[in-house]
Amino acid sequence: MTADLSLAALVLFASHALPSWPGVRPALIARMGRGGFVALHSLGSTLALLLFIWAYREAAGSALLFTPAGWAAPLVVALMPLAFLLIVARVTSKAGHPEAPNTPAGIFRITRYPGSLGLLLWALLHVQATGDGRRVVLFGTMAAIALFAMVKNDWVLRRSEAGRAYRTETSVLPFAAILAGRQRLALTEIGWGRLLGGLAAYAGMIAVHPLLFGIDPLYWL
Question: Using the 8-state DSSP alphabet, how is residue 99 labeled?
Fold first, then answer.
């Protein structure tokens, strides 16, 4: 692992965190216009990602920080469908603005932040199954971005009456609000389409994983 990769990871995290911090986005839009903000944000995010990819490639052959357990790879394969389902369900569901969230429905009855939780699960599963320095930095950065999003959105929710009510009705921990009686499980609101979409995305990733990353997730079978 090199200093360049650590710096690139910090830049990538900042490219996600800074523009989304409360007050920053509206201020930039007021100053630059929505089109200008979108263009600047897109350019900055792209450059940060390209910088990280370059640093990641340069760090090839980084030292092994720990040896993954024998059950690490099978655990990734077993639980990644859940990560894909959470992300697909979030992308295809409307949550509203953190200061004026929609009434909890579908996947939001199960967890308040399905997309960020799916990304966090993705990152943590892969950290424990890799062990080399550069991939620990990669997935550690993913985890940091997901955690930041959850903490930031929770802070924003606390600022409005509607947001505080939404926090009371939902939970970050999956099914906690349902078990506490604050929500009910409504699988029909999630729908078969999202379930099948998540599984299809997972199957697609399994198929292209060896081509994109040089590793077959099913090598242990």
Answer: T
Which pair of structure tokens corresponds to residue 122? 């993705």
CB atoms within 10 A of CB 175: 13
Domain containing residue 36:
1-60
Split into its structural domains, the chain has a count of 2
3-class DSSP assignment, residue 24: helix
* Tens of pLDDT, residues 55-95: 988 887 778 888 888 899 999 999 999 999 999 999 999 88
User: For residue 213, which of 46, 72, 73, 57 has the smallest C-alpha distance?
Assistant: 57
Angle at 217 between CA 213 and CA 221, to 5 degrees: 150
HSE, CB side, 13 Å, CA atoms: give it for residue 188: 0
Contact 120, 85 (CB under 8 A): no
